[in-house]
Amino acid sequence: MNSGMASGPTLRYDLVTDFRIRYRMSNYRMAETFILIPGRTSDQGCGISEGKFLEKYQREINTLMVAVGDMSRLGLADGDFVRLTSEEGQSVEVAVSTAKKDELPNGMLFIAYGDISSRLMGGDTHGSGMPTSKGMDVQLEVVSQG
Questions:
Q1: What is the mean pLDDT of residues 34-55?
Q2: Residue 114: inside a domain, yes or no?
């Protein structure tokens, strides 16, 4: 018997799938915009004279400093990983560390010049021969928390 209605796929409510989607959404955080300030640190300066491949230098260039308030608000702890994405779309993952109390205001990030900061710089030099390396807007997403 055909009632004249088109038959389509049967929709089935799946409780397990619904729970998984809701759980993922409750743990999902939108990326936030921050201002990234790359620069030199005194430990980086000491480390470079000891050797770029030694732990002291590598720790400096591979750690993102985050303001105390932002660390707390985002639920981050030292050693957690975040993803930074530049305005040009370059993306890197980096470990975070809490900045000293008054070193950084909320909304600003600091990383020592090195491989990671260089990856986030755009290629446009604005005729100067040097790409913009200060005050870059980046998107920050939490990747892993301890």
A1: 72
A2: yes
Which amino acid does the sequence have at 113? Answer: Y
User: Which pair of tokens denotes residue 73?
Assistant: 């608000």
Domain total for the chain? 1
The pTM score is 0.69
- Say if CB 84 and CB 142 are below 8 A apart: no
Show the domain range for 126.
Answer: 31-144
CATH code of the domain covering residue 96: 2.40.40.20
The DSSP-derived string for 47-83 is: HHHH-TTSHHHHHHHTEEEE-HHHHHHHT--TT-EEE
pLDDT of residue 61 exceeding 70, the answer is yes
Any domain includes 138? yes
Q: Is residue 56 part of a domain?
A: yes
β-pair type (108-112, 91-98):
unpaired
**Contact by Cβ (8 Å): 37, 135:** yes
Label residue 17 left, alpha or beta by phi (over 0 means left) and psi (-120 to 50 means alpha).
Answer: alpha
Choose among 140, 146, 39, 56: nearest CA to 94. 140
